[in-house]
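G., the chain you wanted modeled:
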Amino acid sequence: MPRPRLENRPPLSPNGHSDLPSPEDPRQALTQSRISSIFRHYVSELAPWYDLNDARRRFQDVVSVEALHNPLLFSAILAFSSVHLHRSLGSREFLYIAEYYHLESIRRLIAITDRRSQIHDGATLAATCLLRSYEILARSQSHLHGSSSFLAGQQIRIGPDLLSAGFWNYLREDITVALIEKRRLKIDLENIWMQYPTEDDDRANMISLLLGRTINSCFGTGNDARVLPIPEWRSLREQVDEWRRDLPISFEPIHFEQDRSTNNFPELLHFHGWHIAGLQYYHTLQIILLLAELGSVVTAEAGSLKMGSRIMALTPRVAQEIEHHAVQICALAISNDSNAARVNAFGPIAFCGVYIRNQQQRRQLLDELQKWEKLTSWPVESIVRVLQTAWEEDGEAVP
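Predicted structure as C-alpha cells:
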C-alpha cells in the first residue's frame, strides 16, 4: 500500500518557535485555551458537515470522544479545524497550528500503515476523511495518495459503528472529486453491503452508494462516456426508480411563493441535510443515466461521445429532462441554509450545472457559489472553472 509522504516540519510561528502541545496526550493538550477553542470549533461547526447523512451524529459525538485518547484522530481534528479558522479569519497563527498538527497526523498515519493491523480501524478512516478536507482547504499537495487502499478488499457491513460513518464520508468525498473531474471513484464498492433502508438518513446513504456504483459503471477515462451494456443500464435504472418510489413524504420539498426578481430557481425547502443531499444525488443519477443511455446509442452509430454540454443539442426532449434535473440540484442548494449540504453539493453542481442554459440562472449560480465559499471557507475555483469552460464552449459564456 502506498504510504503517506512526509515533508520537513514547517515553521510554526514567525520566529520559527512554538509552544504547541504534543497530541500524544489529548486531554493535557486541551488544557491550553487556544487548543480547546480549536477543538470546540470542530465539534460545533465542522462535525455537522460529516454528519450530513447521520442521525446518530457519529462525527460530532463519537469522533470527538474517541479523539480524547487517540492522538491521530485528535491531531487530524486540530489540523482541519485550524486551517478552517485560518481561511475564515485570515490569521496566520491558525495556519501555523494547522501545519503542525497536519504533520503530526501524517507521522502517525505512516506508523499505522506500517503496522497494517490498524488500517481498517474506524478512527483511522475518520482521521483520513478529516485530513482529506484539510488538504482541500490548505490547497496543499496531497499526502494521502493511496489512502483509498485503506478500504481495498475489505468487506464492510454497514451498521452503527464508526467505520461505517467514516466509509460514508469517504465515499461522498470521492464522489465529489469524481464528479468534478469526470472520472471513476478511487474506491471499489463491490464489497459494501447494507440492509434496505427504513430511516431517512439511511435512504440518503443508499442513494450515495447507488451513485458511486453508477459512476464506476458509466464513467470511462478522461471525459469519454463508457458504452454501458443495456442490461446493466436497466438494472441501475430499476434500482434508482425503486429508491424514488419508496421515499416517504418527508423527502417532498415544501413549495412556497417566491420573489422571482431575486431568485431564478424554484424554492425547495427542506429541514434536514440528508433530504437535500439524497435528492441532489438522485437528480445527478438521473442525468448520468440519461447521458449513458444517449451515449450508448450515439456511440454505436457514430463513435465515442464526449460527456460535455454539447450533447444538449442532440435531442430537445432529453435536453429538457437533463436541464430539469440540473435546475433541481441547484435549487435545493440555494433554497436551504445547510452549509453541510452546500459543501456536499459542489460535486453535483460542477457535473450537472453545465446543462443549465438559462443565462439568469447561470449568473445566479456563480454568485451563489461565491457566497457559499465565504460561508463555508470551501474553495470553489475549480467548480466555477468547470462551469464557465463548458458554457464558453457553448458560445454562451456568462459575462
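The chain has a mean pLDDT of 86.

Shout if anything looks off.
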